[in-house]
Amino acid sequence: MTPSSNDHEIERKIEVRAVFTFLLVLAILTIAIIGAIFMIVNKRVAKQEEKERPVPGVEIMIVEIGDHPVKITTQGVIESRREATLTAEVSGRVLGISPNLKRGGIVKQGERLAWLDNADYQSALASAQSTLADAELALAQEQARVEQARLDWEKLGRGASGNPLVLREPQLAAAQAKAASARAAVDQAKRNVERTEITAPFDAGIREASIEVGSVAGPGQTITRLFSNNDLEIRLPLTLEDFGFLQRDPAGKLTGSIRLSATIGGNLIEWPAEPVRIDQEIDRATLSAQLIAKVLPSSNKDFPLPPVGLFVQCEIQGATLTNVAEIPRRAIREGGQVLLVTPQNQLEFRDLTTVRTTRTTAIVHDGITTGERLCLTRLNSPVNGMPVRVNETIDPPSIKKH
Questions:
Q1: d(CA 306, CA 312)
Q2: What does each C-alpha distance from 61 to 69, 218, 220, 280, 354 come to in angstroms?
Q3: Residue 109 buriedness (CB in 10 A; 0-12 / 13-18 / 19+)
Q4: 389-394/57-62 β-pairing
Q5: Contacts of 301 (CB under 8 A, 6+ apart)
Q6: Using one digit for the tens of pLDDT, what is the confidence trace for 220-277?
Q7: Burial classification of residue 232, based on how many CB atoms lie within 10 Å of its CB (0-12 exposed, 13-18 middle, 19 or more buried)
Q8: For residues 189-206, b (16+ Cβ closer than 10 Å) or e, as one string?
Q9: What is the side-by-side strand order in the sheet with 83-87?
Q10: Could you name the CATH architecture of 91-227?
Q11: In angstroms, rounded to a whole number, what is the distance separating the alpha carbons of residues 34 and 30?
Q12: pLDDT tens, 98-123?
């Protein structure tokens, strides 16, 4: 073969290969396009499923409207209504003291607590009585002289008024004054003798004893400090809100029962009390008022009255509120709103007027009626009309229904 024929052969092969490559690429593109079209036409459409929103379960309470007797709780310390500090009024050596004259001792009214040496005062009394006898004798003699002077003047005076000096009127007045002074001296001496004995002014407990046998007591020296253990009272602090709910009669006098309680030896003991007065000054530190109540004896044999200084809990029966509902305080949301559950089990916001709140409850009126269902569960982002499921119904607080 000649060289020119070889070149033609090579060119032909190249052309054939190029055509074959083109056709192959074209076939691949065609298949790809057809496959893409097929996939687009027959693509799977994802099913859109609506997720069911969960309905929250709630706890409810059936509302009851009625009368609510206010109960005010507070606490205080038992105090004695009568306290006294006995001091010596005269000086003298202590000859004896009562065996009950010691801290914690109990004494009766009129019981002799201590007695001083009264020899000097008995001597002074005898001297005063002697002086009184002399003065009374002188007064009797002067009275006789006055009577004699009056008779003499009636005989010699010829009807004229007598001179006071002649009738011995000044002399009689002086004798009467001396006799009165002597009687006063005797009384003073008797009181000094009596003051050598220190007695209890009332039934009391001994808080402090400051003398002993053999010591010398001087005027003004403290003998003992005592307090009444059967005449007790208690000061009860009240918030200004609670202060307004105290029970009063039409005349404005405080009424209502008071119950005191404390645990002694594992046993809860209660004592009644009655309101007596109100401290007229508000405590500036706590902005609280003070109610003073008298403690009354109970039927408890061991503790008919509470010990002085005992810390007790107190419950005061206050005024009665009418046409109100008592609800748990946790049901009230910000702004004084509550959530109600409608008969269709949907939420409804309601504005209420709160009359009084305690640690766990609130007294409300206006905006709620008997039989409505109050939602007690705290929900996140509740809205009006939101469906709920009632899980539990609790009993309402006890209230006197209309």
A1: 9
A2: 20, 74, 69, 42, 18
A3: exposed
A4: parallel
A5: none
A6: 999 999 999 889 999 999 998 888 899 988 888 888 899 999 999 889 999 999 999 9
A7: buried
A8: beebbebbebbbebbbbb
A9: 83-87, 222-227, 204-209, 106-107
A10: Orthogonal Bundle (1.10)
A11: 6
A12: 999 999 899 999 999 999 999 999 99
Beta bridge partners of 93: 216
Token representation of residue 22: 């083109």
Burial label, 335 (beta-carbon count in 10 A; 0-12, 13-18, 19+) = exposed
**Which residue's entry shows tokens 């010990």?**
307
Cα distances from 123 to residues 43, 95, 198, in angstroms, run: 136, 18, 20
Q: What is the pTM of this model?
A: 0.68
CATH class of 58-68+322-401: mainly beta
Over residues 170-213, the pLDDT tens digits come to 888 898 999 999 999 999 999 999 999 999 999 999 999 988 99
The residue among 224, 232, 233 whose CA lies nearest residue 111 is 224
DSSP alpha helix (H) spans, 320-369: none
Q: Residues with Cβ < 8 Å from 16, sequence gap 6 or more?
A: none
- Residue 257, helix vs strand vs coil: coil
The answer to whether residues 313 and 77 touch, using CB atoms and an 8 Å cutoff, is: no
Contacts of 114 (CB under 8 A, 6+ apart): 94, 96, 97, 98, 101, 197, 198, 211, 217, 223, 224
- The residue ranges of every structural domain in the chain are 1-36, 58-68+322-401, 72-80+232-321, 91-227
**The two structure tokens encoding residue 106:** 């109990």
Assign domain 72-80+232-321 one CATH number from 3.40.1190.20, 3.40.50.970, 3.40.50.1980, 2.40.30.170. Answer: 2.40.30.170
Which residues, 6+ apart, have CB-to-CB distance to 379 below 8 Å?
56, 58, 339, 347, 386, 388
The DSSP output letter for 387 is: B
Could you tell me how far CA 392 lies from the centroid of its own chain? 36
How many CB atoms are closer than 10 A to CB 187? 13
3-state secondary structure of 322: strand
